[in-house]
């Protein structure tokens, strides 16, 4: 499955050979936002229009649109691990948040700095 990004939203790009269409949906929302096109070259435009329409609809309804991710993540650890993490952070002159973010970044392989 391929994906596209627009205005902070990520959408899928798939083909339904039986129906002869390309289609997708905006990922990581509680709302359902889909789009469809007859060709792959038109799918990006339909995705972007779907995102724009979603944002406009939310504005008209007077509600905040769902945002895919806020960047805030609550993690539960064993108390002993939490203590060791705090000691490690203090020894390195870093924050727990920076160490956890670096570890997650290394694990998923994005290698993006904070």
Short description:
This protein is an alpha+beta fold and 114 residues long. The chain has helices at residues 40-61, 79-92, 96-108; strands at 2-6, 9-16, 21-25, 34-37.
Into how many domains do the coordinates divide?
A: 2
Strand content: 15-25%
Helical coverage, percent range: 40-55%
Q: What string gives the helices and strands in order?
A: EEEEHHH
Main sheet properties: 4 strands, antiparallel
Note the gap between the termini.
Answer: 28 Å
Mean pLDDT: 91
Shape: elongated
The counted number of beta strands is 4
Instruction: Kindly name the structural category.
Output: alpha+beta
What are the low-pLDDT stretches, counting only 5+ consecutive residues below 50? none
* Total number of helices: 3
Strand order of the largest sheet: 1-2-3-4
Task: Summarize the structure in words.
It contains three helices and four strands, in the order ββββααα. The two termini are 28 Å apart. The protein is an alpha+beta fold.
Question: Keyphrases for this structure?
Answer:
114 residues; alpha+beta; four-stranded antiparallel sheet; 3 helices
Give the arrangement of secondary structure elements:
Elements (H helix, E strand, L loop, with lengths): L1 E5 L2 E8 L4 E5 L8 E4 L2 H22 L17 H14 L3 H13 L6
Antiparallel strand pairs: 1-2, 2-3, 3-4
């Amino acid at each position: 499955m391929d994906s596209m990004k627009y205005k902070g939203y990520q959408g899928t790009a798939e083909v339904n050979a039986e129906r002869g269409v390309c289609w997708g949906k905006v990922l990581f929302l509680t709302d359902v936002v889909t789009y469809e096109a007859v060709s792959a070259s038109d799918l990006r435009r339909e995705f972007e229009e779907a995102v724009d329409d979603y944002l406009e609809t939310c504005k008209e309804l007077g509600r905040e649109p769902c945002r895919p991710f806020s960047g805030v993540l609550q993690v539960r650890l064993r108390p002993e691990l939490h203590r060791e993490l705090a000691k490690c952070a203090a020894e390195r002159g870093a924050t727990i948040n920076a160490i956890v973010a670096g570890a997650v970044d290394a694990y998923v392989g994005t290698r993006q700095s904070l």
